Amino acid sequence: YTVNGAVSGFGPLIVSTFGYTTLESILLQFPLGSIVFIFVLLTGYLSSRIRNINLVLLILCCLPVIAGCAMIWKSNWYPRAPTPVAGYTIIGFFGPVVFLIINIGMANVAGATKKSFTAAAIFVAYCVGNVAS
Fold first, then answer.
1. 11, 75, 125, 129: most buried by Cβ count inside 10 Å?
2. CB-CB contact of 41 with 96 (8 Å)
3. Residue 1, pLDDT above cutoff 80
4. Between vectors from CA 43 to CA 41 and to CA 47, what angle results, nearest 5°?
5. Which DSSP letter does residue 107 get?
6. Is residue 103 very low, low, confident or very high in pLDDT (cuts 50, 70, 90)?
7. Which residues make Cβ contacts (< 8 Å) with residue 51, sequence separation at least 6?
């Protein structure tokens, strides 16, 4: 699950293809960053308070990313079109997914050393996926 490689690395360039200037493209990164910030904190809080909710949160956070990709793919890209920008913005739900995947992987392993190794292995796979994408 490495949609964030392209989004975080080339976000302003992606938005500028929708007909926005360079400055507007940079400013349109703020809503995406806000979604990442708010929902990483929210999913972290909920998963620490409610038992066995990680998979539900993972699925709920993946659905907006899929919807955002579909909005970008199927919408008309006329100059300054709002639909692809809205789709790009809700792709920001990728942030909580990364942490939830690491959390779920660690929850299925016993022992501190094995948990650390599992978290590191998942993170390395995530980084390799970012480089590959």
1. 11
2. no
3. no
4. 120
5. H
6. confident
7. none
**Tokens 């620490």 correspond to what residue?**
48
Q: Which amino acid is at 50?
A: I
The two structure tokens encoding residue 133: 């994408």
**What digits encode the pLDDT tens for the residues 47-93?**
999 999 999 999 999 999 999 999 999 998 888 889 999 999 998 88
Length in residues, the chain: 133
Residue type, 42: L
| DSSP string across 30-57 | HHHHHHHHHHHHHHHHHHHHSTT-HHHH
Distance, in Å, from the CA atom of 93 to the CA atom of 78, rounded to the nearest integer, reads 25
Our measurement of the distance from residue 21's CA atom to the centroid of its chain's CA atoms, rounded to an integer in Å, reads 24
